[in-house]
Amino acid sequence: MNSYRILSIVAVGSLLSLAGCMSPNTRSTMIQQSLYDRLGGKPAITAVVDDFISNVAADAKINGRFANANIPHLKQLLVEQICAGAGGPCAYSGRDMETAHRGMNIRDEEFNALVGDLVKSLDKFKVPDREKGELLALLGPAKPQIVGH
Ligand code: HEM
Q1: For burial by CB atoms within 10 Å, which of 92, 118, 133, 139 has the most?
Q2: How many other C-beta atoms lie within 10 A of the C-beta of residue 92?
Q3: What is the C-alpha to C-alpha distance for residues 89 and 83, in angstroms, rounded to an integer?
Q4: 100 CA to centre of ligand 1 in angstroms
Q5: So what's the pLDDT on residue 31?
Q6: How many A from CA of 40 to the centre of ligand 1?
Q7: How confident is the prediction along the chain (149 residues), in pLDDT tens digits per residue?
Q8: Which atom from ligand 1 is nearest to the alpha carbon of 140?
Q9: Ligand 1: residues within 6 Å at CB?
Q10: Are the CB atoms for 26 and 103 separated by under 8 Å?
């Protein structure tokens, strides 16, 4: 065994024994969890998406847009999209955002209304500010592909 390998083993060993005597909070900052795990995995993401789509259905500013939508399929794709984007074990099987929204000519206010409906659900489920921010930062960059096409 070369000295580099021995050093690495010693380093990893010390880190693990150090983590072992730390509080769970300190430990989780050392061993970084994915956004997917911090959100609570697929059950939590599915619960948020279900509630979010109920908010959209009740939102007079945008619900007309979804009159002909396949809601169960849309929910499934949203769960996949969030799960995959947050580092979870999912693959997104839907269309890219520009193709999916092409011809709809979605306005800025409509996009903001939909994000507001999502934020309502994240708040209802008490998703902490950090995870809420990271999730919105994941979806926000798609705005230019969704609005105005
Ligand atoms: C962050 C913002 C948004 C995200 C992440 C998002 C995500 C998605 C996804 C994943 C799909 C399914 C793609 C597919 O069918 O392959 C979809 C479809 C759709 N989206 Fe969006 N979307 C967003 C904003 C909006 C807005 C603002 C509206 C309208 C107000 C909208 C209206 C629709 C409609 C009508 C469909 C088609 C549903 C169907 O035909 O079953 N989306 N969106």
Answers
A1: 118
A2: 15
A3: 7
A4: 7
A5: 78
A6: 24
A7: 454 444 444 444 443 454 455 555 555 556 789 999 999 999 999 999 999 999 999 999 999 999 999 999 999 999 999 999 999 999 999 999 999 999 999 999 999 999 999 999 999 999 999 999 999 999 999 999 999 99
A8: 1
A9: 62, 65-66, 69-70, 73-74, 77-78, 81, 94-95, 100-101, 106, 110-111, 114, 139, 142, 146
A10: no
Nearest Cα neighbor of 95 from 51, 142, 45, 35 is 142
Mention every residue, 6+ apart, whose C-beta is less than 8 A from residue 131. 35, 38, 39
Amino acid 119: pLDDT: 98
**How far, in Å, are 25, 86, 112, 128 from residue 139 at the CA level?**
27, 10, 12, 17
- Which residues face 145 on adjacent strands? none
Nearest to 79 by CA among 44, 113, 117: 44
